[in-house]
Each structure stands twice: as structure tokens, then as C-alpha cells.
Design a protein that fits this description.
111 residues; 3-stranded antiparallel β-sheet; 9 strands
Length: 111
């Protein structure tokens, strides 16, 4: 599969999460306060809750239902009750500022 354009960088508000679905894969897209764009799995590993409905702060997103925090860089949970990470997807920005994601291209994160 090839990366698909999901939005433009300028369409993303800093520290606001957006949900997209690519090939049946729900993905949470966030531009942090430094301007870096992140893409992580949109489903909390503690419960079937969309992370895009949560709160973004200090490089993490909080699940609104039970308060688990997930790192935007690694997908690892930073607080309980979640203990399983969410996937992190490779984000490519083209010359025109388009954000491209391939739902099959995940970042390998060491334990």
C-alpha cells in the first residue's frame, strides 16, 4: 500500500486530535505545539474508545474515558489503566504540506 493524503499540515490545529480512517484502520492525527505531526492508532488499548476524542498536552494524548495517557512519539501508555501501546504510523509531509500516512507503515518501537 502507498501513503495516502489525509489532510494538509495547515489544516491541523496544534494540540488538537483528528480521527481519520484508512483501509479500515482508525488513526489519530495530531500536530503538537512544536509543529510536528504524529499519527497513532486511534483506539485506546484499555477500552474501545477513540483517542481523537481525548485531550492532547505535552506530547501525549489522554483517553477521555479512563484517563490513560499515550505518548505521541512511541504509542506507549504513560499511565494506567492501559498497559498495551497503540501503533505509531510513519507520517510523510510532501512539498505542498500534505500529510500522508500508510496504514501498513508503522514505526518499530523498542520495549
Amino acid at each position: 500500500m502507498t501513503a495516502q493524503r489525509v489532510c494538509g499540515v495547515d489544516e491541523l490545529e496544534p494540540n488538537k486530535a483528528y480521527r481519520v480512517e484508512l483501509e479500515g484502520t482508525p488513526i489519530c492525527v495530531v500536530k503538537d505545539s512544536a509543529g510536528k505531526v504524529h499519527a497513532i492508532g486511534d483506539t485506546c488499548t484499555h477500552g474501545d474508545i477513540s483517542l481523537a476524542e481525548g485531550f492532547v498536552e505535552d506530547g501525549a494524548i489522554e483517553c477521555w474515558a479512563h484517563g490513560s495517557l499515550f505518548s505521541l512519539d512511541t504509542g506507549k501508555p504513560l499511565s494506567l489503566p492501559a498497559y498495551e501501546p497503540v501503533p505509531v504510523f510513519v507520517v510523510k509531509i510532501d512539498d505542498d504540506g500534505g500529510v500522508h500516512i500508510d496504514p501498513e507503515d508503522t514505526v518499530a518501537i523498542e520495549s
